[in-house]
Write a structure and sequence with these properties.
single chain, about 290 residues, alpha/beta, 9-stranded mixed β-sheet, two-stranded antiparallel sheet, 12 helices, binds adenosine monophosphate, binds zinc ion, binds fe (iii) ion
Length: about 290
Amino acid sequence: MKFADLHLHTQFSDGTFTPEELAGHGARLGFAAMALTDHDTVEGCARMAAACAAAGIEFIVGAELTAEHDHTEVHILGYFLDSQNQTLLTEIARFQAVRQQRIREMAARLNELGVPLEVESVFALANCRSPGRPHVARALVKAGLVSNLDEAFERFLKKSRPAWVPKARMSAVEGMELIHQAGGLAVMAHPGLNRTDDVIPALVDAGLDGIECFHTKHSTAMSERYLEIADKFQLLITGGSDCHGFSKGKPLIGGVKLPYEHVEKLKSRVESRKSKAGTGAASALDPRPSTLG
Ligand code: AMP
Ligand code: ZN
Ligand code: FE
Ligand code: FE
């Protein structure tokens, strides 16, 4: 039986593995296919593609966009993206700038609280364009200002804690449009974790292609529920570990094994969409400006 992990992070966002290390874990576990889904970036995909090719693993270019619909935070996974797509690159660069500014605001809040964290130490540790709260947490641990990552989140960084700063998010509908115009499929990430059930029908109407039924933080009952929802709305099914590196001594990769038949279905959908776009060539040459500002 062939398996895939379609939700993975590297050092290009808030994971701790390099693409080569991640591909190495995938090879060790015998995965047939892997997708890289770093937050708001596709930068790691070239190295991940090369590392997967060397290990005989099929690689899918992906990204995880932080978005919202009706004030609900929704993470949208994009798969089979054209990593050179200029509109995609321009838009995600804007959200990377938002992430960087948010790190400055979180550091300023911490400083006001009397926690002497230097913002440059966070950027140095993150060493990527798409920094996030885990980098602030790791910098706090490194500076000896908290004893572990849990303490950093519990005391300062969790929602509504004193150093938490809300993040400007793109609309989920625009996020899906961004993914589609870059040739990709748009999938709702971990609906059980973000409690996004109420927005599923609206996003399906707006073009949602799939739903992540299998995820480390989904119980068996949750996965079954989302499989039923996938069936009801005719959505493609995905799954992944959401591995960010070592977590409590071992990596999450290997904990979720998506049967490869779902990868086949994703590929068929991408192919049929490409051939449709090819026959109605107007779409590629459409002179109208994008609605994405
Ligand atoms: P951000 O995108 O900057 O808001 O950071 C979100 C990331 O922080 C998630 O992808 C998780 O990896 C991590 N995270 C969120 N909440 C916690 C928590 N309570 N403890 C540890 N990590 C967390
Ligand atoms: Zn993350
Ligand atoms: Fe997520
Ligand atoms: Fe993720």
